[in-house]
Amino acid sequence: VFPGVRQAQWLTKTKLVEGLPPAVQGIVDNPALGLQELEERAKHVVSHARLWDTAEVAPRREKYCPVLFENLIHICRLMSGKYPSLSKRMLARDCRIAATWERESILLQVRGLSGILMNSVSPIPPVASQEEILATREHVLETFYPIAPTIDLQEVNVYQELNDTGQCFRDGYPYSHPHTLFFLESANVRTDRFRPEQLRAKMLMFAFGNALAKAKALHGNDPKVLEQPVVVQSIGTDGQLFQFMVFQLNTTDLVSNDGVKNLVWIDSDQNLYERAQCVPEVKKRVVTKPAGISGFQPDTFKKFLALYLHGTV
Q1: CA neighbours within 13 Å on the CB side: how many for 65?
Q2: Rounded distance, CA 220 to CA 224, Å?
Q3: Helix, strand or coil for residue 88?
Q4: What does the pLDDT look like over 88-129, one tens digit per residue?
Q5: Coiled-coil segments, which residues (predicted)?
């Protein structure tokens, strides 16, 4: 079977751009924001999650991955003193999503629990210009002939074409815009976790699903190119390796391969640190590898923080 992201691109009529969009990369690279001042805190929370927050010799992934996520989110919230609008965010857990669309002659639906969803009072502004959006009309989507692009999708009888943003967005709910989805692949057994490529495909499908459901709630079910595109971000991690994604829904006219496409920016396989040595390694009474965190990558932390700040800074 062909790789997951390529399949997800076809299903969602999306053009892929490698790396982070300039709007997010600009936050990472801006020294005036003082992101580097939080690097020591980030190193500390990695040590806390991997080395200290347990009575066991070595914490299990299902334990340290959620602890690391909560600690990183706590660091992000510290920025609300400088940017008060960051306090207008809400984390929703076990949020259900359902979105239905037609692709060529196939009725498709994405539904289920969409990770941990951070909602915002105001939407993320579009990250691609009108010129960049119109230029996607020239992009040719990859086909997989003679393999059907739906080969491994589950077939079900759909009795109701749902487009539902779940319990998170009832009428009057102030935090009514999806901002960032977080997927924690924290299963301790490797075979129970999504591989990075599978995780990126899952992130794309659920970012698309949340964006599509929101667009239909705002603009109705008629297929159209959106005057105001909907942007939804996604971050996935297994507690060490991070995947970053920014998705922009430009059109709900998804039936044909022609016309404007949606856009996704993906920054893949970013390690937050190289190694966590929970107990020192000793050979012939000599410590060959001391306990601790090695190879901390500040840029990966800054990218996490930049996606959190995006739409406010």
Answers
A1: 18
A2: 10
A3: coil
A4: 999 998 888 888 999 988 888 888 877 899 999 999 999 999
A5: none
